[in-house]
Design goal:
This protein has 511 residues and is of the alpha/beta class. Helix content is 43%, strand content 12%. Strands 3-5-4-7-8-10-11-12 form an eight-stranded mixed sheet, with helices on both faces. A two-stranded antiparallel ribbon has the order 1-2. Helix 5 links the parallel strand 7 and strand 8. Helix 11 crosses helix 12. The longest helix is centred in the middle third of the chain and has 20 residues. The two termini are 32 Å apart.
């Protein structure tokens, strides 16, 4: 569809194209349901087909609508808008470690966020790649479909977009599901600023214990042994040409099982490298097929021939002339609201580093929003009371990409909104693709029968290659004792896995 570049001045500037997809209802049509995978900057036109295949009840009654938001191009066709950052503007060092708090180290770290902010702000279209503009595009979708209201499911940043659409067009918004939520009543940037805390919690409380259960002979049988071996792997990769910052980044934003498998592959081979070994992971592991698939996809080699040195080379790959980053990602994240200064982010790094060393030292030195100088052109309202009764938030307790505290803060600031908490879940994106019957049932009943649950807690599903849930202390508290089916037992497991990975990867900051 054709949209004005600027909805505040529709006659000014060149129009833009926004790609839309639709999977028509297979039975009696009750309405249209718009889907957004997040980002900012995620393409979403493939999502209706995927959700329709996995949730046939929804597909029977709804027309499922996908959208590649402005600035994201067309999925499978035209490329998204990108900012080209000259490599000459970046640090030439390959040993960057945000734990090094020397003036020289900090200066080198700040080169990337400064150059990325300047490159993205120089794009002529950047001021018009905002949530305010995209929400108006969504309203045009509703009008063109001829629907009196538009129902909505958004994941991650898609929760921010959905909440702001409902805030700007309260009479047009129907039932709204916000999955893996930002604090849509507060600051979008706060969701990114919480990454050090929520990633440290997931890493220490869920991922490392899982590693001790899956690979005790490689990483150690206790959490203390595994953490010590992780540090040894970090030093090995640093000596092999992979910066400690890059190594740390592998273990942040691990919001899908595929990201966990990649983390396990890098972790285990790093320990083997630190031990002076050259062989791959023991192929007798039940996770060997997944490890092999990640080895081929990420490093271009089968598991049996992948060496620790090969992993180090793959992680150290650098762009030749330009680093290309998503224009929409930063135009939205830094342009929706007033930003903090680079000095503020530096102080945040100083505060978060000692408490959350996995990513706390690094985050405050890597945020382009600290160098964003353009002021927002429009103000985004908060969710009005008249809409709250039509909004359902779904949130995993240990989500490393949008923190539970962010979702809870939004719900508390919007009386009448309901929250479905998923205990012990470390994954990003809960409805439709996880295979959790408690979550799927609550959301589907809300959408199809207009019966919205109150604030409830769903039990999580087992982690990869496990049959039971291992409780982790967190903000939800005690989870229900009821057993749930694993995602692997649900239909179309390969499709579920790929969509879960896509939603996680879409919502991982570009570093």
């Amino acid at each position: 569809m054709t949209v004005p570049r600027d909805w505040a001045a529709p006659e000014v500037g060149r129009d833009m194209l926004v790609s839309i997809s639709r999977v028509a209802a297979s039975g009696e049509h009750v309405g249209s349901l718009l889907l957004n995978p997040g980002g900012p900057g995620g393409q979403g036109t493939s999502l209706p087909g995927e959700l329709g295949a996995l949730q046939p009840q929804l597909h029977e009654r709804y027309a499922l609508i996908g959208m590649d938001p402005r600035g994201t191009g067309q999925e499978g066709g035209t490329a998204p808008e990108v900012c080209e950052v000259p490599v000459g503007r970046l640090s030439p060092r390959t040993d960057l470690d945000a734990r090094d708090r020397s003036a020289g180290s900090i200066a080198e770290h700040l080169k990337l966020p400064r150059a990325a902010a300047e490159a993205c702000q120089s794009e002529a279209v950047a001021p018009f790649l905002t949530t305010w503009q995209t929400a108006h595009d969504v309203e045009l979708v509703r009008m063109l479909l001829g629907e009196s209201t538009l129902d909505y499911i958004g994941y991650s940043y898609g929760t921010w977009l959905g909440a702001k659409y409902a805030s700007l067009f309260p009479r047009s918004a129907g039932k709204v599901v916000l999955d893996s939520s930002t604090d849509f009543q507060g600051r979008l940037q706060a969701s990114f600023e919480a990454w050090p805390q929520i990633n440290q919690r997931m890493f220490e409380g869920s991922f490392v214990p899982w590693m001790t259960r899956q690979f005790p002979e490689d990483v150690g049988a206790t959490v203390e042994e595994a953490k010590a071996n992780w540090e040894r792997a970090r030093r090995f990769y640093a000596g092999a040409g992979t910066s400690p910052d890059q190594f740390d980044a592998i273990f942040t934003g691990m919001g899908s099982p595929l990201r966990w498998v990649l983390g396990a592959l890098v972790f285990v081979l790093g320990v083997r490298g630190a031990n002076g070994e050259t062989g791959a992971v023991v192929t007798g592991s039940a996770l060997a097929p997944q490890l092999d698939a990640r080895a081929r996809a990420v490093f271009g080699e089968p598991l049996e021939s992948l060496t620790p040195a090969g992993v180090a080379r793959g992680l150290a790959d650098e762009p030749e002339d330009y680093l290309r980053v998503s224009a929409t990602r930063y135009a939205v994240a830094c342009g929706d609201q007033v930003t903090r200064s680079a000095a503020w982010y530096r102080r945040l790094s100083d505060r978060q580093g000692p408490r959350y060393p996995l990513f706390g030292w690094q985050y405050g030195l890597s945020e382009p929003c600290g160098f964003w100088s353009d002021a927002p052109r429009q103000e985004l309202p908060v969710l009005p009371a008249e809409v709250a009764g039509r909004v359902l938030v779904v949130q995993g307790e240990l989500d490393p990409q949008t923190g539970f505290e962010q979702a809870r803060a939004a719900v508390r600031a919007a009386p009448g909104v309901s929250l479905v908490s998923v205990a012990d879940s470390p994954f990003h994106g809960q409805y439709g693709f996880e295979g959790n019957p408690c979550v799927d049932g609550a959301v589907t009943v809300f959408l199809l029968r207009n019966s919205r649950p109150g604030n409830v807690v769903c039990p999580g599903i087992p982690l990869p290659n496990e049959t039971g849930v291992h409780p982790v202390p967190g903000p939800v508290g005690t989870a229900p004792a009821a057993a749930v089916a694993t995602a692997a037992e649900a239909p179309l497991p390969a499709l579920r896995e790929s969509v879960r990975a896509k939603i996680s990867d879409i919502n991982t900051p570009v570093r």
